[in-house]
Amino acid sequence: MHLMELPREVLLGENLKDKVSQVARRLKLGEKALILYGPKTKEIAGKDVEKHLTDSFDVKCLIVKEASMKEVERTLNVIKNEDINWVIGVGGGSIIDVAKLASFKADIPFISFPTTASHDGIASANASIKDLGAKTSVKARPPIAIVADVEVIKTSPYRYLAAGVGDMISNLTAVKDWELAHKIKGEYFSEYAASLSLMSAKMVIKNADIIRLGNEESVRKVIKGLISSGVAMSIAGSSRPASGAEHLFSHALDMIAPKPALHGEQCGVGTIIMAYLHGLKWQRIRETLKKVGAPTNAYELGIDPEYIVEALTIAHTIRPDRYTILGKDGLTREAAEKAAKITGVI
Length: 346
Fold this sequence. Notes:
By secondary structure, this protein is α/β, with parallel strands linked by helices. The chain is about 55% helix and about 15% strand. The protein has helices spanning about 20-25, 40-55, 70-80, 95-105, 150-155, 160-170, 170-185, 190-205, 210, 215-235, 245-255, 265-280, 280-290, 300, 305-315, 335-340; strands at about 10-15, 30-35, 60-65, 85-90, 110-115, 125-130, 135-140, 145-150.
């Protein structure tokens, strides 16, 4: 059996903070709502969403500081004690990931209200929870609805939008890894999910000149691509269409680098290297990232080249069950250094 769970509604537009009530009513989510936001996202959009919801619903609020199991448990306690019917996460990846996992564990729906467009977690079923020193992806459920307010997302630093491009462009190598696992390991492969995922990546390459402007249209292009990416993962029933060796490289950096960069930035740089290993046109990927102002090397990531090479050699150990271009044994130090040097990453 193959189960596909998809968002029921996606709202994309301007000034949507007052539209959450209508979405919750249409989807008959129940009277008791819990809003999760961070200290910053409370000011950016959380307070306004709360104000509009309070007119029609019984609302509780919680400030989330990080995507950790401790915060997930704290949220679960509020859901149980207050008899909450549904959750809304107003924020970036961390807030939405906590809302996603807590609502999944409590078996209630959640709405995603992103304040940045930095990665496809806003629409996917996977939650990245930072625990035990490494970020690991946990399977949950996709949001029942996504409310993407272009005005809100546009106010976040442009760096996040560029990181969103990095996360999306990584679909190119993720799908290649998936095809490889299908051929070599007989892993399940969905052509439809793969095509949808690749379409998102090709779209950002095609629209790089528009995205670099950082205006409303730029945000729309990136958000649409990230949502398509999330939907592709829901269709596949796994993160395969959008997460391959380049994501393992990023997770490895999260573990070892003293100050990791943004997830999408690291994935973008990882994609350049993995595209080289796959024999793809890695120069075109690097060009797109340059065009939108995303990092393309260790220096721009703010990470010492030493950590880049080390991350490449340990990436295959992050998820041993996930077969990628790195194979079962990973890259030797020489191979890692060579690939990073040829692509200009170090």
